[in-house]
Design goal:
alpha+beta
């Protein structure tokens, strides 16, 4: 199993790519689709420290994380991720910025562990390439892999 963490997932959503996916992947049309550029544009942020406000900074990308629509927009934005994953492994679960990849194998097949690990590595590399294309990054420091098995089965795996 691999647990993937997308770096600042909500803050790096490219609006043009999101609008294209709302149209092509979801089939959103007309006034509903036209509303989203207004919802996403003209957003800014500023910081308050000890009562002093910073200058406002215009946000050219991202979706509001604390909103009801934020996670749905992020899932729509990352919807093409499943096409990348299914080329390598059979199981994945995603919600917002959390992605879990699963691959299993029979421990009595001597080649199966190496094949499973190679499939996971290849999948993660393709995910990294996909993220770069979508102008995003995988947070390697928070991405983890986990192999579960009996002590005897785990001892058979090469380091």
């Amino acid at each position: 199993m691999a647990l993937l963490d997308l770096s600042v997932a909500f803050d790096t959503v490219n609006h043009d790519i999101l609008l294209e996916r709302l149209d092509k992947a979801i089939g959103m049309r007309g006034v509903t689709l036209e509303w989203f550029p207004f919802y996403l544009s003209n957003r800014c942020e500023q910081v308050c420290i000890d009562g002093s406000l910073s200058n406002q900074y215009h946000l050219g990308c991202g979706v509001p994380q604390g909103s009801c629509s934020g996670p749905l927009l992020l899932v729509t934005y990352t919807s093409t991720l499943f096409k990348v994953i299914e080329r390598h492994i059979p199981e994945a679960h995603c919600y917002a910025d959390d992605t879990r990849l699963y691959v299993s194998f029979k421990p009595d097949d001597t080649n199966a562990p190496d094949v499973a690990i190679r499939a996971m590595k290849d999948c993660i590399q393709d995910i990294k390439n996909w993220l770069i294309k979508d102008r995003r990054l995988l947070n390697d420091d928070k991405t983890e892999s986990l192999v579960i098995g009996t002590r005897q089965e785990l001892n058979k795996l090469s380091p």
